[in-house]
Amino acid sequence: MRRREKFVIVSVLLSAGLLATQYIPLDWRYLSILVLFLLSYLSSVWALSDDLQAHEWLTIVPFPALYASAVALFYFLLPEIFWSRLIVILVFGVGMYGLFLTSNIFSVAKGRTIQLLYAAHAVGLFFTMLTSLLFSNVIFSLRLPFYYNALLLFASHFPLVLMSLWSIELRQKISRELTLYSLVFSLILAELGILFSFLPLQIWSQALFVMSFLYLGLSILQNLFKGRLFRNTINEYNLVAFLMLFLFIILFPSK
């Protein structure tokens, strides 16, 4: 069976699985999402098995599973309107197929440069931001204590950061340097979650700021790993950081 056929089959099956979670009793929904995560992970292993190596079980395979879990959790927050949920299902299936194509490019590009790699980096970054936004929105929607927010943000974002940074070099292993950068940056995101837990910001504003900070940090680290972190690049990201700070001040409630 060809890879693209596998991608289509898995995308359709996972879309059906996402739809099925909505008909499970509320007390079992979190367990159903865990099952969906495991099914997404195992089906991703099967879909990408042709060129899959041992370290890619941690750098490529988890991405579709995290994306599926983030959408499934956010799905519970949507109003029970048939058409809105149907649109989410269709977008999820198309997105899953695109994510499989991106993961496949990372898998076959190791050790060499292929033309589609630059497009794969852009698509991978987009899905990283989307997954972060959905996870953050769900976490802050739960209104949990600050330490749970920090723990959940760290747990959900560490693999995203690790996979995003690994995709830049596509090494045959996960280096100690890569792990250290991922840990430190994820801890910073967790501390940001603690800060937002005490600020009277809207949930979407909190999630957007976490996503924006993730984008800024990953962009800087990716350029660092590429050896392209020049003075002009740093100045551009400083400008983005000041813009984020300005928006934060504008959106911060006055009362």
Strand residue content: under 5%
Helical residues, percent: over 70%
Q: How confident is the prediction overall: mean pLDDT?
A: 88
The arrangement of helices and strands along the chain is HHHHHHHHHH
Largest sheet: none
Structural class: mainly alpha
The gyration radius over C-alpha positions equals 18 Å
Span between N and C termini?
60 Å
Which term fits the overall shape?
globular
The count of domains is 2
**What is the overall number of helices?**
10
Kindly state the number of beta strands: 0
What is the chains' assembly state? single chain
Low-confidence stretches: none
Task: Draw up the topology in text.
Blueprint: H1 3-21, H2 29-47, H3 56-59, H4 62-75, H5 82-108, H6 117-141, H7 146-169, H8 176-197, H9 203-226, H10 231-251
Write up this protein.
- Helix 6 runs antiparallel to helix 7, helix 7 (about 145-170) runs parallel beside helix 9 (about 205-225) and helix 8 (about 175-195) packs antiparallel against helix 9.
- The relative contact order is 0.09.
- About 80% of the residues lie in helices and about 0% in strands.
- The longest helix is centred in the middle third of the chain and has 27 residues, at about 80-110.
- It contains 10 helices and no strands.
- The chain has about 260 residues and is an all-alpha fold.
- It has helices at about 5-20, 30-45, 55-60, 60-75, 80-110, 115-140, 145-170, 175-195, 205-225, 230-250.
- The chain folds into 2 domains: about 1-110, no CATH class; about 115-255, no CATH class.
